[in-house]
Amino acid sequence: MIDSMILEFDRALRTVFGQARSVRPTPGADIPESDLDETERRHAAALMRINHVGEVCAQALYQGQAIVSRDQSVKKALTHAADEEVEHLAWTESRIRELGGRKSLLNPLWYGGALAIGVLAGKLGDRWNLGFLAETEQQVEAHLKSHLNSLPGQDMRSRAIVDQMATDEIEHAKLAMRLGGEPLPQAARAAMKGASRVMTSVAYWV
What residues have CB less than 8 Å from 28, skipping those under 6 apart? Predict the structure, then answer.
């Protein structure tokens, strides 16, 4: 139990304060940098900061859900999805640096809140745990697609990252439902969307 707690604490520290690493090549890394003006660069960096915050929250959600999951196959699936989300962390963090931006100053707060939500979702049982995961990924996918419409058209490096992230999120949602996820009630989906709007609005600036 103590070893497990140490490992989970280490994961949290690495997510919030460390530098993530990716096994897969960063999407768009071979695309020449676009000629963005200062306003476009700041806007793209802010959008990538939002996406980075989303991945910080995803790590915490997966961690919280896996900690309390009763099914080993579910734990394994959550861990695998979390590993892919680490790659998303690395991609967005790298792109933020390239654009001259910074990560959110509130990342410890985002992580702590998402971890608590993940534990709560996991406590409801694996069907609702997986349903919550699927709904989260579906909302993230929609959110990423909205960023493809908002990013500067010539910023192909950022767009390649966001596009691949959206593809991965779709697969995570499908996996959760295949493992037995239960669709969430409408009220729960609406509450999640409301919380997401608050997070994205704040993370754009802070």
Answer: 156, 157, 158, 159, 160, 161
Residue 5 pLDDT: 63
Residue entry with tokens 């419409």:
149
136: Cβ contacts below 8 Å, ≥ 6 apart: 58, 61, 192
> Where in the sequence is the domain holding 127, given as residue range(s)?
36-205
Place of tokens 């694996």: 126
- 18, part of any domain: no
Alpha-carbon gap, residue 190 to 164, rounded angstroms: 26
- Amino acid at site 35: D
Question: Alpha-carbon distance 145 to 141, whole Å?
Answer: 6
CB-count burial class (<10 Å; 0-12, 13-18, 19+) for 35? exposed
Q: What is the reported pLDDT for 108?
A: 93
CATH number of the domain where residue 44 is located: 1.20.1260.10
pLDDT tens digits, residue range 46-90? 999 999 999 898 888 888 888 887 778 777 777 777 787 889 999
Residues 154-206: pLDDT tens digits? 999 999 999 999 999 898 888 888 888 889 889 888 988 888 889 999 999 99
Rounded Cα distance between 92 and 85, Å, is 11
Of 69, 77, 103, 67, residue with least CA distance to 204: 103
Q: Reduced to 3 states, what is the DSSP secondary structure of residue 19?
A: coil
Output the pLDDT for position 82. 78
